[in-house]
Each structure stands twice: as C-alpha cells, then as structure tokens.
Amino acid sequence: MIDFIAPVAAWCAALIETIGIGVITLFALYVLYDAIARILKKEESESIFQELRQSLGRGILLGLEFLIASDIIYTVAVELTFETVGVLAIVVLIRTFLSLTLEVEMSGKWPWQGQP
Fold first, then answer.
1. How far apart are CA 87 and CA 67, in angstroms?
2. Averaged over 19-27, what is the pLDDT?
3. In whole angstroms, how far apart are CA 9 and each of 18, 78, 96?
4. What pLDDT is recorded for position 40?
5. Is pLDDT of 101 > 90?
6. What per-residue confidence (pLDDT) applies to 115?
7. Does residue 113 form part of some domain?
8. What 8-state DSSP symbol labels residue 108?
9. Is 46 within a domain?
10. How many domains does the chain have?
11. Which residues cross the membrane (predicted)?
C-alpha cells in the first residue's frame, strides 16, 4: 500500500503545483489584457493601475495557496525527512509572509483587522 501512495501523492502534488502556476499565469495575462483594453478606451490610468495591482495580487495569492498545498502533499506523502520538513517550514513561512504582505498591499490593512 505504501508503495502505491508515494507515486500517487507525487503526481497529485505535481498536478496541484501546475494548477498554481497556471492560476498565476492566467491571472497575469488576463489582468494585462484588461489593462491594455482599458488604456485603449482612454480610461483614467491611475484607476487602471490600482485595479491591475489588486487583481494581479489576488491571482498571486490564489496561486500561492495551490503551491503551498502541493509542497505540503509532496513533503508529507513522498519525502518525509527532518531535512525536507525543515525546508517545507521555511518555504511555507516565506510564502505566508508573501501572502500577508500582498494582502496588506491590496487592502491597506492587516487580514485580522475587521471591516471599517
């Protein structure tokens, strides 16, 4: 049974990682396309820029969540050693820090602060 779990988990981790990369890429392409279309319509550039940053930030946050999930699956199910758990902890901390800073950048407040 154990011999069956590792390859399936590795495949699932790779699939989820691909989804995360795809989400970030598709959001980036969509946001860029939308910004160019709005610039050609002569909309206000400041609002275009702010909405572009917020939409791109949301896409990156969503993609990061998939990438973290894939790292967790791979580490726990495929290659569980003290070294890989340590590397996973560092990667999760870095990605969590990125997520928090992106959230603060997009909303102007910490995630745990309530709505005004």
1. 14
2. 97
3. 14, 7, 23
4. 92
5. no
6. 63
7. no
8. S
9. yes
10. 1
11. 6-33, 84-102
Angle at 78 between CA 77 and CA 84, to 5 degrees: 100
Q: What percent of the chain has pLDDT over 90?
A: 33
Confirm whether 11 is domain-assigned.
yes
What is the mean pLDDT of the segment spanning 100-115? 74
Nearest to 43 by CA among 31, 54, 34, 56: 34
| Cβ-proximal residues to 92 (8 Å cutoff; 6+ apart), any chain | 68, 71, 72
Say how many C-beta atoms besides its own lie within 10 A of residue 94's C-beta: 11
| pLDDT at 6 (0 to 100) | 80
Structure tokens at 26: 């598709």
Residue span of the structural domain in which 59 resides: 2-107
Token pair recorded at residue 107: 């909303």
Q: What are phi and psi of 17, to 5 degrees?
A: -65, -40
Residue 112 lies in a domain: no
**Start-to-end CA span in the chain (Å):** 52
pTM listed for this prediction: 0.78
Residue 115 DSSP label: P
Q: pLDDT, tens digit, for every residue of 3-15?
A: 778 888 889 999 9
